Amino acid sequence: MDKFKTLEKKIKSKTAVIGIIGLGYVGLPLTENYVNGGFKVIGIDSNPKKVNALKSGKSYIQDISSKSVKSLIKTKRFFPYSDFNKISDMDVIIICVPTPLRKSKDPDISYILSALKEITKRKYLGSLVILESTTYPGTTEEILLPELSKNNLKVGKDFFLAFSPERVDPGNAVYLIKNTPKVVGGVTAKCTKLAALAYKSIINKVHEVSSPTVAETSKLLENIFRSVNIGLVNEMALLCNRMKINVWEVIEAAKTKPFGFMPFYPGPGLGGHCIPLDPFYLSWKARTYDFNARFIELAGEINGNMPYYVIDRIFEILNSNNKTIKKAKVLILGLAYKNDINDMRESPSLDIFKLLVNKGAIVEYFDPYIPSVEIYEKKYKTIKDDYKKFKKYDIVVILTAHSKFDYKEIIKNSKCIYDTRNAIKTKRKINKIHKL
Ligand SMILES: NC(=O)c1ccc[n+]([C@@H]2O[C@H](COP(=O)([O-])OP(=O)(O)OC[C@H]3O[C@@H](n4cnc5c(N)ncnc54)[C@H](O)[C@@H]3O)[C@@H](O)[C@H]2O)c1
User: Fold this and answer.
1) What was the pLDDT predicted at 426?
2) Is 54 inside a domain boundary?
3) Which atom of ligand 1 is closest in space to residue 21's alpha carbon?
4) What pTM value is reported for the model?
5) Is residue 215 a part of any domain in this protein?
6) Residues 164 and 243 both lie in one domain
7) How many Å apart are CA 359 and CA 343, to the nearest integer?
8) From the alpha carbon of 61, which atom of ligand 1 is closest?
9) What's the structural domain count of the chain?
10) Which one of 33, 38, 51, 422 counts the least CB within 10 Å of its CB?
11) Residue from 20, 97, 216, 270 to probe ligand 1 pocket by mutation (most atoms less than 8 Å from CB)
12) Alpha carbon distances (Å) from 95 to 18, 26, 128, 380
């Protein structure tokens, strides 16, 4: 039987072994879905600490409980490893490794390259390789395809290759893997067919496109769309502040239009592993085509400046209370990059924390999701939810609108509040509360 038919049969009968490389925010939920969907899953992570945690039934990701990890292990269909030799046992190999930026804002695909090296060192004849990591258009066909085709292996015949972007939204209880449509683009029609089949086993709707490049670009468009719209509304916030117009009220009003408008909200800056980084993957690639992606760069500039704007506003507010930033007692509320999660990757709160420390402020923070943080090699622990003690701070700065915060207590006990998220909604104006 040819390799396509063999793999097709295995996926349909759920006897295909699914391999997940990179068991993080993307790889672990995917693992959970495949195991619960009846497949055997081999997960490989280069971090042995994570593998040991999983083996002992512990989760390190908020959206997946330790109870759920324990039940995955109990099925005897989930095998976490840090040993790459297990790649030879995989029928479908899904790569979910990080894709950060270098300091120069150029793509860093070194994690993809190292995962790829581990695959090509081993037997992958007859397997389907899918890249899920967000990356620039062309990565699958320009980087993965030539390496996997070495030794005269033919794509679509000896092995199969596709790109399928991940859309997981940490903390989102409504849209999970199953009910979020998945885009799939294979190098050949057979590659697309197999990849679509593999995802249809666990996801309600799969959208097939003509190539990996289209799939790669569609992911970037989605995230650039968010970055540009957030950039626009952040600029509106700066202008509204100058003109003394309440930007939040403006958005609420515009939002009543039932068509042609979608609300985005300003804030202290972009965070998370995706929106602040992904757009630059495309602008970098665009430059190799002598094309300047201006919207991406402009949005990046406006959003990247928001932490500095927040610092200027803190200066201004303290000044209006006859205080200086130096030695001012500042309490930051929220280090996570968005509400109700414990992820602080790229969080603007960290930039603002550092800037305040640099200016000589005495900074403390409160985040029920983040027990401690290291800023300039100094360890800070979150303060407890003892709101009465808020009186001692010169300013309380809300950077993440966690729903666990008791806003009534915050208002009651704080001398001065700077709310960058419009977390406090009061009918009457309270003079000590300052908005973005
Ligand atoms: N987090 C999100 O919300 C999200 C959403 C959509 C897409 N993505 C994309 O998915 C990809 C993964 O992101 P993530 O948030 O899961 O990252 P993560 O850091 O949470 O997880 C990646 C995992 O890969 C492991 N790893 C690194 N190199 C490896 C290697 N060579 N072999 C095996 N394991 C390796 C790391 O130890 C880590 O556990 C990125 O490209 C990201 O842009 C992330």
Assistant:
1) 83
2) yes
3) 33
4) 0.94
5) no
6) no
7) 26
8) 20
9) 2
10) 38
11) 97
12) 11, 10, 11, 35
**Among all residues, which ones are annotated catalytic?**
274
Check whether 221 has a pLDDT greater than 90: yes
pLDDT per residue over 269-318, tens digit each? 999 989 999 999 999 999 999 999 999 999 999 999 999 999 999 999 99
Q: Is residue 219 part of a domain?
A: no
Regarding whether 236 and 138 lie in a shared domain, the answer is no
Q: Which residue out of 61, 96, 270 has the highest number of ligand 1 atoms within 8 Å of its CB and is therefore the one to mutate? A: 96
Indicate the top mutation candidate among 273, 275, 341 to test ligand 1's pocket, ranked by most ligand atoms within 8 A of CB: 273
Chain segment 379-434, per-residue pLDDT in tens? 999 999 999 999 999 999 999 999 999 999 999 999 999 999 999 998 888 999 99
Of ligand 1's listed atoms, the one at least distance from the Cα of 25 is 16
Contact residues of ligand 1, CB 6 A cut-off: 21-27, 44-47, 50, 96-99, 111, 114-115, 133-134, 166, 168, 170, 273-274
Assess whether 287 and 372 both reside in one domain: yes
**Residues 358-371: tens digit of each pLDDT:** 999 999 999 999 99
Atom 25 of ligand 1: nearest residue by CA position: 22
Contact 402, 338 (CB under 8 A): no
Residue 409 forms part of a structural domain:
yes
pLDDT band at 104; cut points 50, 70, 90 = confident
Residue 191 · residue 128 · CB < 8 Å: yes
CA atoms of 380 and 319, how far apart (whole Å): 26
pLDDT of residue 350: 98
Give the tokens for residue 390: 């808020």
Looking at the fold, whether 235 and 156 belong to one and the same domain comes out as no
Scored b (16 or more CB within 10 A) or e, 23-33 reads bbbbbbbbbbb
* Same structural domain, 199 and 98: yes
Residues 274 and 416 in one domain: yes
Same domain, residue pair 196 and 231:
no
Residues 230 and 171 grouped into a single domain = no
pLDDT at 205 over 90: yes
Percent of all residues in the chain with a pLDDT value above 70, rounded to a whole number: 100
CB 89 within 8 A of CB 42: yes
**Ligand 1 atom showing the smallest separation from residue 277 Cα:** 43
